[in-house]
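Spend some time on this chain, tokens included, and walk me through the fold:

. . .
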Amino acid sequence: MTEGEWNASAAMVDRHRDAIWDIEAEGWAEEASGATHLYASTFRVDFSDIAEWNEIWADVAVPILDETTDEGLLRGWVQLGHNTGGDHNFKILYFFTDWDDIDDFFIRFSGTLADEHPIRFARLNDMLREHDDTIWIPAPPAIEDEEE
């Protein structure tokens, strides 16, 4: 490896961040293939609250995730957690086949939590210290220049 290649490699390592997450729970549609959209929600919950957070999440959120997966609105979901530092310690990955399903799912998910479990939903929100969402979709095909 040349010095230039080494420097470029070292610079890339300096500019990225790794995190190791444990898979805590997951649910997949019978036909999970075909998902083209990934919605990642990351949360920061105080470590002292994480056991209660996980219990409430398992009791009230996971059944909604499973139901919407069985119905095909979600293609699948994965719950991740870690306690090794970093800004966030709880992450959910949601897999969808199209953009409209994302909106339909979150309207139903949040609405069901708020309507059917208002006290526990409020408690989840009380324990939440920070939250961030990222949506990943396929890159559009390359546009070729047309000569006239």
